[in-house]
Amino acid sequence: MLPDVIDLSGPYPAQSEPPKPFPFTSAAELTAKPISIQWLLAGILERGSLNLLFGEPAAGKSLFALDWAFCLAHGIHWQGCPTEQTDVVVIAGEGFAGMARRLMALESKYGRPSPDRLFVSERPADLIDENNAQWVADSITALCPNPGLIIIDTLHRNMTGDENSSSDIGQFVANIDNHLKPLGAAVLIVHHSGHGTSQRSRGSSSIRAAMDGEFSATKDGLNVVLSCTKAKDFEAFKPQQFSLMSIDLPWLDDDGEPLRSVYLQHAGNAKSTTNKRKLSARDEAILTALSEAIDKHGVEPSAEIREKFAGFDKWSSAKVVHVDHWRDRSYKVIVTDKDTVDSKRMAFKRARDKLFNHGATAEYDGYAWRIYE
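Structure for AAA family ATPase, as requested:
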């Protein structure tokens, strides 16, 4: 119930501070002097930018990201490109074992210890949640007040939303813009390539639209090709070719054998692949399904397989997987008119035979693996 009398004799209640005006700059100020790009990694990563590095499984995308991080944290050139020495943070979606082995391989490549200005998270972060994004930003600020590069590896492992949803991706990018980029750092998101194609990133097209720079890592026989697929305010570099170098680490496994890891060795400008035989989108998807099955269910090749087939340390995938696991994974990406088990079975058989005949895969005794030659 309203009061009968309202007392207006007292002072007016204190008014809140008026909001600061929305910032604007005149065109004359913008053109008064040239604005130079502040490169973290010359020609590739600009301070304060948002970038995407995508590729199919085992194409080396995380190897590139960690290699860049290693060089930036040390302030050393990467393949002749100058760097700005800075603190680097990796928000990792994987365990420490694989990360540690890759860092050991980079120590061998560059002949120096892992940098103390490179920090790796102990768990992934749900960056679609604003509170989590702020928590990560606060933790980074406490660790290194002026980070130069924040790597999110991978997008899928660091968000709980749907990567095919433009609204979810919009929230993910907004949280990066509002909480991570204000730290002054460039952000590099590592992501998977699209289902059935290695030419674009997976998920909503709004991912690419939000990026200042976009890069792809693709397999080309025994090599990996790094390309710049979007350069918003700089000139894209020519595609570069790299070889995967496998080395023994000073650490031993339970059987006393040296653990192994890989790093990327520059091999010059990428060679033209215009005459290369092309696989269909379905074939590519089923080939990717083999990589994913190996990642999840792969086992070491038996002594008999190693004896009969060479190349597991050079041009073959390190592990093999039972064909049943490959088939189950492939059925999830095969779309047919009838969409029955029989139609999927026939589609898988045709693709499996084609991949084998093209030399992209090998099989023995119920197990399959990839060939990168």
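The radius of gyration is 25 Å.
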